[in-house]
From TrEMBL:
InterPro entries (alphabetical): ADH-like_C, ADH-like_N, ER, GroES-like_sf, NAD(P)-bd_dom_sf, Zinc_ADH-like
Domain Enoyl reductase (ER): start-end pairs: 16-346
SMART domains: PKS_ER
Signal peptide: none
Name of this chain's protein: Alcohol dehydrogenase
Taxonomic source organism: Fusarium solani (Filamentous fungus)
A molecular function (GO) term: oxidoreductase activity
Gene3D superfamilies linked to this entry: Medium-chain alcohol dehydrogenases, catalytic domain, NAD(P)-binding Rossmann-like Domain
Pfam families, A to Z: ADH_N, ADH_zinc_N
Length: 353
């Protein structure tokens, strides 16, 4: 096996906020460790956290001057002598939390693109335990959209296990997690409801499938009333909260009478909340669950990929825009400005097949 001696990457500038992205040339070793896998990265997708780190808006440990991004679709081009389960030519992704293999690991979260080098580069080396096989029917761009947003959506929907008849879900906003959750919901028979302040975005989303319901929260500020109307008075089984703690009490109100769940996955509107702490007791009356979701485990990722492959679900409809690698800075600016609906992808140099 042979591979290039050098490759191109982008790194955070480090230092004062806001930081910038700087092009870099990096070196590859001549040999791999026993359990190391060398991957050629074909596509990378962006999450809010990737841009948020540059602006000091994502409070996690960050490797100074590190390579950003956690989500990629790649091809195995080299492997160590003891690697099991992967062969040259396999299509793979990196798990978004390398310390979370089973969901019960007693280790602190650690993610490519934050406290360790990420995937915004042509080549990378990872331990074989940190990779998963991609669904065979997906393109590189689709595969790159799975790791962070997809696994978070999957975990937020309870891994779509034991979905009750007539189940429904509400997703805040039109970012990556919400759009991934929308497609997973359709595949699992869950009625999706998605919110936005843009009629244009909602119209485009509704055109994907007639089962999708939408709410413009600017023109319909009483979301609970709209949800009751859409669900014939039942309320939803799942709420995916991308905005933060301020709306938690409203989210609980949207839930069905028994057994619903609110997944707190983001904080786009900040960390503060002004509701009375006693209001949280509404979750008890509904026998509901409030759960923080910090992506998911390798086990979750593998289960989601099996589901997507079995249902032949494509993520192409939720890829908003694809930027070439040389326009990486523009891709970050586009996402940070909130211009996207769904996933923003960077296509790496090469044939892209």
């Amino acid at each position: 096996m042979s591979w290039p001696k050098t490759y191109s990457a982008f790194k955070r500038s480090g230092g004062a906020i806001p930081q910038t992205l700087q092009a870099s040339e990096e070196s590859l070793p001549a040999e791999l460790g026993a359990h190391e896998v060398l991957i050629k990265i074909h596509a990378v997708s962006l999450n809010f956290r990737d841009a948020g780190m540059l602006h000091g808006r994502y409070p996690v440990p960050i490797l100074d001057g590190g390579v950003p991004c956690s989500d990629c679709a790649a091809e195995v081009v080299g492997k160590g002598s003891s690697v099991q389960g992967f062969e040259v030519g396999d299509r793979v992704a990196v798990i978004p939390d390398v310390a979370n293999l089973t969901g019960s690991d007693a280790t602190q979260a650690s993610s490519p693109g934050s406290d360790r080098p990420g995937v915004l580069r042509e080549y990378a080396i990872f331990d074989d335990t940190l990779l998963v096989h991609l669904p065979k029917h997906m393109s590189w761009e689709e595969g790159a959209s799975l790791a962070c947003a997809g696994v978070t959506a999957w975990a937020s929907l309870g891994s779509v296990s034991s979905v009750p008849e007539g189940a429904s879900a509400l997703f805040q906003g039109t970012g990556g997690v919400s759009m991934c959750a929308l497609l997973i919901s359709l595949g699992a028979g869950i009625q999706p409801i998605i919110t936005s302040s843009s009629d244009e975005k909602l119209k485009a989303i509704q055109a994907l499938d007639p089962r999708i319901k939408t709410i413009n929260y600017k023109t319909h500020p009483n979301q609970a009333e709209e949800v009751k109307r859409i669900t014939n008075g039942r309320g939803v089984n799942f709420v995916i909260n991308n905005t933060g703690p301020a709306s938690i009490i409203d989210d609980i109100e949207l839930l069905c009478s028994r057994g619903g769940s609110v997944a707190l996955v983001g904080f786009l509107e900040g960390w503060k909340a002004e509701w009375d702490p006693s209001a949280i007791m509404g979750i008890m009356g509904k026998n509901a669950r409030l759960q923080g979701i910090a992506m998911g485990s390798k086990k979750d990722f593998e289960a989601m990929n099996r589901f997507l492959e079995d249902k032949k679900i494509h993520f192409t409809p939720i890829i908003d825009r694809v930027f070439p690698f040389k326009e990486t800075r523009a891709a970050f600016e586009y996402l940070y400005a909130g211009k996207h609906t769904g996933k923003v992808v960077i296509k790496m140099p090469g044939d892209g097949k």
